[in-house]
């Protein structure tokens, strides 16, 4: 697979670390509007072809697929251009800023017959994959209740950088700079974590969003700090289970933690993922009588990057695809409506 990298920021470096280890993948070009950032990135990864616009790269055309690592609001126009050029596309989350744009991308990709995949990175978490297998195998019985959380503390801790002075973080706090807050940034991750792990879809949603005061007048320089910092969400799942999902950037003591608890009539599972590692615990069978939890061993799983490369080679569409991401975006869009209207909505 001849791969084009679109956008050369921090996540691009992370992706290239993975792609460079996959046999049969050659990174043939990189695109960025910032010439200094482009040069530094291309030099680091020994990429010969360098473009300051996607149009230039498409005119050149000597690539099979692209990984789109541009800012959220740029995903739609750039991915549509790639699809029109007949290129396979791996797109960072969220697929688009809203459901109509995400649906347009989905339908265009399906009509063009190109491989389309969204980089929901927590699909790489082996304990989540194992939990889903156990749910589908009926080891928990009928699922009754699901809890999921995505906790970050970068509004409290400077471990990842200082949001007060760095544009990398400030834009994520400002709707005027394209942010839909924590809901738009990591909401799609935790919705996928919950629904995928519990092997079901979200059917109804009711959400509350909160923006806390962070600076005098709610503004730092050109950035109005008006995007949501925390959300809580109650959901009904298609399998009949009730769910509670929440996320916050104010979770002191949690740098970047996803947690999922799945409760069934025959047992329960807990998945925890932190920067330091992941784990799966279960309370199953006779252990349910004594509330005894035990660690469950899991084996490594292929990464999204490996599965994307395999899909391009085989022509077989992988998951999570654009349509899945668009459906999750619909839930996120409706969550914002439920906040405004204070009522539950059917997905």
From TrEMBL:
Which spans are transmembrane here? Answer: none
Q: Which PANTHER family match?
A: BCDNA.GH03377 (PTHR43818)
The yes or no answer to whether the keyword Transmembrane is present is: no
**What organism is recorded for this protein?**
Rhizobium etli (strain ATCC 51251 / DSM 11541 / JCM 21823 / NBRC 15573 / CFN 42)
Q: Which residues form the GFO/IDH/MocA-like oxidoreductase domain?
A: 129-270
Q: Spell out the protein name for this chain.
A: Myo-inositol 2-dehydrogenase protein
Give the GO molecular function terms. Answer: nucleotide binding; oxidoreductase activity
> What keywords appear on the UniProt entry?
Oxidoreductase
Classify the source by domain of life: Bacteria
Domain named Gfo/Idh/MocA-like oxidoreductase N-terminal: residues: 2-119
This chain is encoded by the gene named: thuBch
Note the Gene3D superfamilies from the entry: Dihydrodipicolinate Reductase, domain 2 (3.30.360.10), NAD(P)-binding Rossmann-like Domain (3.40.50.720)
């Amino acid at each position: 697979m001849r791969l084009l990298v679109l956008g050369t920021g921090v996540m691009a470096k992370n992706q290239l670390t993975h792609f460079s280890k996959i046999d049969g993948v050659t990174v043939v070009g990189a695109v960025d509007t910032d010439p200094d950032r482009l040069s530094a990135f291309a030099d680091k990864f020994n990429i010969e072809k360098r473009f300051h616009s996607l149009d230039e790269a498409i005119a050149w055309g000597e690539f099979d697929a692209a990984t789109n690592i541009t800012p959220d609001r740029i995903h739609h126009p750039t991915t549509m251009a790639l699809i029109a050029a007949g290129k396979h596309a791996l797109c960072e989350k969220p697929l688009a800023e809203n459901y109509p744009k995400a649906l347009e991308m989905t339908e265009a990709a399906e009509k063009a017959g190109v491989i389309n995949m969204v980089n929901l990175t927590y699909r790489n978490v082996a304990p989540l994959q194992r939990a889903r297998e156990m749910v589908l195998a009926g080891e928990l019985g009928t699922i009754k209740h699901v809890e999921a959380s995505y906790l970050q503390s970068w509004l409290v801790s400077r471990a990842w950088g200082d949001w007060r002075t760095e544009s990398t973080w400030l834009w994520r706090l400002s709707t005027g700079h394209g942010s839909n807050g924590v809901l738009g940034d990591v909401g799609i991750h935790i919705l996928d974590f919950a629904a995928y792990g519990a092997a079901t879809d979200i059917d109804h949603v009711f959400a509350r969003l909160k923006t806390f005061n962070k600076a005098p007048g709610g503004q730092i320089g050109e950035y109005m700090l008006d995007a949501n910092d925390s959300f809580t969400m109650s959901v009904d799942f298609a399998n009949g289970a009730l769910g509670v999902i929440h996320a916050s950037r104010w979770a002191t003591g949690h740098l970047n933690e996803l947690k999922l608890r799945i409760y069934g009539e025959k047992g329960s599972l807990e998945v925890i993922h932190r920067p330091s590692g992941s784990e799966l615990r279960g309370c199953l069978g006779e252990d349910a009588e004594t509330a005894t939890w035990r660690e469950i061993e899991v084996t490594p799983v292929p990464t999204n990057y490996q599965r994307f490369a395999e899909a391009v080679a085989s022509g077989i569409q992988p998951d999570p695809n654009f349509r899945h991401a668009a459906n999750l975006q619909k839930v996120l869009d409706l969550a914002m409506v439920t906040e405004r209207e204070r009522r539950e909505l059917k997905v």
